[in-house]
Input
Amino acid sequence: MFVAFCLLNIGAMVLVITSEHPYVLLWERVVGTLGILAFMGVGYLIRRLSLTEAQSNFQIIRRKLLASKGAALGLIVVIATCYLALLAPMLAPYSPYALDFMQMSKPPSSLHWFGTDELGRDLLSRVIYGSRVAIAVGVAAVVLNISLGLTLGLVAGYFGGRVDNLIMRGIEIWSSIPFVLMAIAIIAAVGASITNIIIVVGITGLMDFTRIVRSAVIGEKSREYVEAAKALGVRDRAIIFKHILPNCLAPVTVLATLRVGSTILTVAGLSYLGLGAQPPIPSWGVMLNRGQEYLAVAPWMALFPGLAIVVTVMAFNLLGDGLRDALDPRLIR
Amino acid sequence: MIKYTLQRILWLIPVLLGISVILFVVLQLTPGDPASVLLGENADREVVAKLRELYGLNDPLHIQYGRLMRNLLTGQLQSIYFKNSVLTEIMERMPATIELGLFSFCLAVAVSLPIGIVAAVKKSTVFDYAGMMLALFGVSIPVFFTGVLLMYLLSVNWHVLPSSGYGGRIWTWEGLQHLILPGIALSTVLMASTSRLTRSAMLEVLQSDYIRTARAKGLRNNAVVLKHGFRNALLPVLTNLGNQLAGLFGGAVLTETVFSWPGVGRLAVDAVFNRDHPLVFGTVLFLSAIYILMNLVVDLLYVVVDPRITYE
Output
């Protein structure tokens, strides 16, 4: 499997360097190269971890994860989507912005596999480029969710008492506002753009992470190893980050994976409402919105971006469910 | 119990105040001011200034907030765009939102509970896999895509149902026809999550000792599954349903937009696009209040479903 992975990366690299599409920019080649190197680094790390001890925790989880067909399929699709996003300029047959007034609203054909939209832009290229917005916004928003939610949860759970009360009350108020409406209100205030949508979704979705981390910390706090660390005079910050945090990461990983999927849904929804990425940036939500207008004459304009959303989100859900089953300590036999 | 209920109701006050402050601050961040948006780009400066004076936009923030809250509580808050009381506008659209929410809720419950129960009872069979595949599909498909697909198949292609809009109250034939498509679209997510949850809750319950006892007593399978099993699996399902119903009333923004459904969610979105700050404030606060109240009702309902729970 590792060999196949290496071959895939070498192929991708060749594609990045030799691609002759006139609209592939230099920085996109550089980013593509760096991205592939990063993928290879992660792959190498995973390989080394799986080669070390036969019965390590990592090995057990990995074996369980891949034993589930759904999770394996999800993983493959997620990885494929990541490559698609990274190599979009080299893989897309046309530029996503190129107008072609001779080819307006044409159905799928050998020239344009997914057909063209009302301005003659190639839909396949736009769907491929759309994966960039989806993955980037989804991952960035969830990273923001985690970093804020994790910190609040750690502080609330570890210190308890009034700090805990204050944070959890705040979270309770924050989460009782209907999420979509809050996002809409904030975006209406600060303006619609990709950066703003990342920030808004990143801030409005942190409560689940706070709750989950808090309860994990409360569970870990009373364990002997924490008391031992305290008795040895280890500082609070070190106890939180070096001792407690690593033991709370399993539920966070599961939630984060599932959350990337649901964030892609949310962001597509907000884009559909006109509150996310602005045209002409190819984003699946906006494309679907345009497609609805031309539903009677060009249904493929709505179909393909919609399918792209479904496939991507489904892959993240499959992977998240698989991870949950693999990481659930109650299931270890 | 009464003390607990009162405590919870009292706690609503700071929560709603908190939300109103957050909303007020968010709305203050908006770059363009409502007066000049209302009058257009090329409006006379003096007229804009006059309008600002009229709406009190020059006052200090805490005074603006106080006035906003006073007007809201006395029902005098005026929508800038509709030139009408915010409360009237909301109440006019509330029936449509409730109809849509209840319809899709009932649909989801009617479909998802049987799917979940069957999937759990016939675990690892075709029924289970098919049901769970469907559920996975349901949580992964965006509601506006479901909407567009249904619209294409049933109204553009086959001309069976009207594609969008509001046809009248639910008990009229016209109204019901218009309700079906948005109702199905809105219910998919709830359907999917509820059937997954029902399945896992049932699986857990069916492994317990009293189920084995019930079977050993020679009870019929249906009685074991429904009376002993389902009743005890209901609690997590009920929590989810309650939260989701609250969400259906508060967050059906997308469905309402796709199908041009004249509900409160769409009113809020339109208000945002029209920069109608009082209306945004009113609608979001109103929907949040409903959401919180529904959640409170769900918490109190636990006691009815599960007598073991007491709030003392």
Observations:
- Chain A is about 75% helix and 0% strand.
- Residues 158 and 309 of chain A are 39 Å apart (CA to CA).
- The mean pLDDT of chain A is 85.
- The radius of gyration of chain A is 23 Å.
